[in-house]
Structure formats: structure tokens, C-alpha cells
Amino acid sequence: MRRVGASGLSVGRVGLGTLTWGRDTSPETAAALLRDFTEAGGNLVDTAAAYSNGEAERILAAAMKANHLHREDLVLATKAGFGVRQGERTVDTSAKTMLADLTASLRRLETDHVDLWQVHAWGGAPLAETLAAMDRAVSLGMVRYVGISNYVGWQTGEAVTWQRAVPGRNPIVSSQVEYSLLARRAEFEVLQAVRAYDLGFFPWAPLGRGVLSGKYRQETPRGSRGASPHFAWFVDPYLTPRNRSIVEAVARAAAGLELDPVQVALLWVRDAPGVTAPLVGPRNTSQLAPLLAAESATLPAEIIAALDDVSGGPVQGRE
């Protein structure tokens, strides 16, 4: 277990993401994923009002019932302020929309509170209004802790400082952004802010949107995210010659260590400085199995250094 920043919340070292639930992952498969995850000791499940237009949250509630899980067995994290409205992707972080999203999330999750409520993205509403809505949610008992998602460094600093400026406001306890061997931009500002403000950090897409698995080394396989009409845009930017060299390095390291490439990619992120819990999003139990099996593993220092070098250089703060 790892503590989420300076808060009283603790989570397992890997979280289960639900981005594909309701679209590529059926309710039956989702229930099996949650079963395997919790039986292995996992407790953090991350979802959002925007995932499959709320269907992921409904499926999560049903999966909890199917596995006879009690509310206290899980750390439930969800997000608000982003979604498809009137057919268009929209970021709306106004107090009205944020609280409406939360109310709908609680209804779909069939619970009276979530453990971590996050702003899904930086929006056009005044930051003070967005954060006041989060304070309101905590005061009403709908939320235990609040966090931010997809904020860059200066946005993180502004949000955290605003909440700390006046006694009685609820502190930002965590940040969630993309971070992997293929996406190390978070190191330039976000991870520095995470360390400076003692925040929890939840990297999403720690497997490089699936590219670090090596499945795209020769071609885009049928049934993969890269072959799907709704996720191809998500994977395509990572299929570059530079990234191919990183994928090959991960594959060589995995072969030498007798690990799966996804285990190497996950361990590099999980044990990076400042990381609380990477959020993995397997679409089925066969994809989840090697990630769970990596719990007791660590990467040798020389392998970490080699992967650092091939992907962009030393990681600040790594011992």
C-alpha cells in the first residue's frame, strides 16, 4: 500500500482503470477483471462520468455486486467536468456541471460517496468556482478527497496553492496525467509540482497506450485498440520510429529478465520517483494477469538506467 500524498488515503501500488468498460469491455468481463484485481489485493478503481457516457460507472456498480464486494473494499475514484454533450467533446468545469456530474456518478455507482473526486481536465470556468464545487461536495459528504487530472505544471501549482491559501478549503491531494516510457513530459513540470506539494500521483497509460506490449512491432493486429475505429487515434501517434526503438529496448529487457514486456513497462513507471499507483486499463483478464503477476518484481538498476537513457535520459530524483 502507498499513501496518497500527505492525505490519509492509502491505495495499492497499481490501480484498475475502466476507460474501455461499456465499449470494448463487456459487463461480464469487467466483473471478471474486478474479481481478479481484488483477489490479488488491489483496491483502487478509477473511472469517470465521461467513460462510455457513464456506462463504465454502472458496470462497476454491477461488478461490485457480482463479486459480493462491500463499499469499503474499494477506493473509488471518479472524475467530472468532461464529456460528450450534444454530440461534441466538451470540458465544462462550472460548479453546476461539476456537481451535476457527481450526483449522476453517485447514482450510477450506487453509493453515497466516492473516495477521490477529480477534475477531469482544465476548463474555461474560473478555477475558484471549480474548486468551490469540490469543497461543497466534501462538505456534503459526497466526496472524501479531491484531486486533479490532466493539469500541466502551472495549473497544478495554481490549484494547489488556491486551496491552501485559506483555512477550511479542502486540499488537492493528487494529480493524474499520462506517464510512461513513451510519454515522459510529466517529468518537466508535473512531477516536480507533485513532489513540491506532496501530492499523490496516478499515471495513466503506463504501458504507452498498449504500444509497449510489443503487439504493434510488425503490424496493427486485429482486435487491438489500434485497429478499432474509436481508439486508433489514441494509438497512432505512438507508432513512430523513435518509439519503436524504445519498444525494442523493453522487449530485450523483458527477454533477459524472463518477464513480459508489459511487466517491464509497468515496473519502470510504478517504481519511478513520486509515483503512487499507475492506472492500468486491461480489456480482459488475460491482459490483466501479467500486470498482477509483476507485483513482487523489481527491475535491476542497470536495466532502469538503460531504459531511462533510451527513452529520454535520467529520471530526476531516482536513486
TrEMBL record:
Source species: Parenemella sanctibonifatiensis
InterPro entries: AKR_Detox_Biosynth, Aldo/ket_reductase_CS, NAD(P)_OxRdtase_dom_sf, NADP_OxRdtase_dom
Transmembrane feature ranges: none
Gene3D superfamilies in the record: NADP-dependent oxidoreductase domain
Protein name according to UniProt: Aldo/keto reductase
Organism taxonomic ancestry: Bacteria, Bacillati, Actinomycetota, Actinomycetes, Propionibacteriales
GO molecular function: oxidoreductase activity
Domain NADP-dependent oxidoreductase residue range list: 14-310
Coiled coil: none
Record-level GO cellular component terms: cytosol
Superkingdom in the source lineage: Bacteria
